[in-house]
Amino acid sequence: MWCDADFIAKAKLYFGRAEDSYDADDIDQGYLWLLLGFEFMLRAPLARVSPVLLASHEGNSALSAAGVDIGSEIPRSIATTLAARRLALIVDGFRIDQVQKDIAFLANIRNEELHSGSSPLRNIPAHKWLPKFLQIVDSLAKHLGEEVTDYLPEQVIEQAKHLQNVEDSAVRAEVMKLIARHKQFAANLRDEEVNNRKKEYPRWVKTADCPACGVPGPLAFSTVQKSKERVEDDAIVYEERQIATGFECSVCGLELESAARMHAADLYQEIDETYAEDLYEKYADSGAHEYDGPDYDDE
User: Fold this and answer.
1) How far apart are CA 15 and CA 29, in angstroms?
2) How many Å separate Cα 228 from the centre of its chain?
């Protein structure tokens, strides 16, 4: 139940059934097999690190994952959302914020398809989820030492890539229209109005020139990866990889949200930051060093 090889084998089995459904022109059924196989592939990297990472805290599931016979008790595994949070810490290329959102989105489609009277696989356009699915499976496959082609049928990969190109083109067209509208707005401003709208930012705020009016505006960043903390001298040190996910211009009013829109506007950035926290200050206010129990006389 807890072996990574078993999860991989079952994922490939279900992805193979998706290929059979595609060949039979039953695309909706193929989609369902993809999402079912996806659940097992998500769990394989955690099982490879330690099966205990998959065990629920309820009952004796953790003991079962550790190889202990728990008799007739049925062991339970963790929810997909918790698996996603743990995967983000061990799989290279996983953006912590986005991957949790995407995995939850895919899991919700599967759950709604299986446990409700609606049919999201028929009602939600494939371009909304299939490229996300491919991106995650590709990262997982590489983490497991394989290629995405070892898991997914070629027609699924080609379809997902095509849909991603369509989605990227649509986002870029939308952003270009937005930029053109704000560029026109800025062109109608008097010099005095431009100067009144301009803002000065502290040196530590990262800025970029607005693609509509050319005035610097602040960039918003989101953390996508965080290293393990380590102690160096008297400090706790760790690194974070951050990506640009937002921009705001005080002059023309242009606002961009999401990494996809930042890409489309040629404002996307990735940065690596190193942080150090004073070891004493981090724990000084926690009260962990203080004794709050009863007083005892020395004897």
Assistant:
1) 11
2) 18
Residue linked to tokens 């690194």: 239
Structure-token pair, residue 157: 């990969």
User: Model-level pTM?
Assistant: 0.66
User: For the CA atoms of 131, 133, 134, 136, what is the dihedral angle to 10 degrees?
Assistant: 120
Amino acid at 181: R
- Angle 68-72-76 from CA coordinates, rounded to 5°: 70
Q: Say how far apart CA 127 and CA 131 lie, in whole Å.
A: 6
| Residue (of 211, 215, 222) closest to 199 by Cα position | 215
Structure tokens at 221: 């960043």
pLDDT tens string 178-204 = 999 999 999 999 999 999 999 999 999
CA distances from 21 to 93, 123, 156, 173, 195 (A): 30, 19, 11, 34, 62
For residue 285, what pLDDT is reported?
Answer: 57
Hey, what amino acid is at 26? D
Structure tokens at 131: 């490229």
* Alpha-carbon span 103 to 131, nearest angstrom: 12
- 55-82 residues labelled b (16+ CB within 10 A) or e (exposed): bbeeebbbebbeeeeeeeeebebbebee
For residue 218, the SS3 value is strand
Identify the residue whose tokens are 């505006």.
217
**CB of 102 closer than 8 Å to CB of 132:** yes
Instruction: Tell me the C-alpha distance between 284 and 139, whole Å.
Output: 40
Helices (H), 116-258: 120-123, 130-143, 154-187, 191-197
